[in-house]
Amino acid sequence: MILGGMGLVNPLTTTGAKIFAPAYALFSGLMFIGVMGIVLTPVAHRLLHKFHIDEGKKK
Fold first, then answer.
1. Tell me: the pLDDT tens digits for 46-55?
2. Are 32 and 9 in contact (CB under 8 A)?
3. Is the pTM of this model over 0.90?
């Protein structure tokens, strides 16, 4: 709901729903960050190789 920008449709009435909604929002946000990290890691790695950032100082 948070990532999609939809928000809540109906007010939460039960205690279980009030606990589930923020827990699910936190879980989905962390999963989104984790998946994007996994997806973008090869791109960042390729850029480091392209610009020779990972070589360090040679003697």
1. 988 888 765 6
2. no
3. no
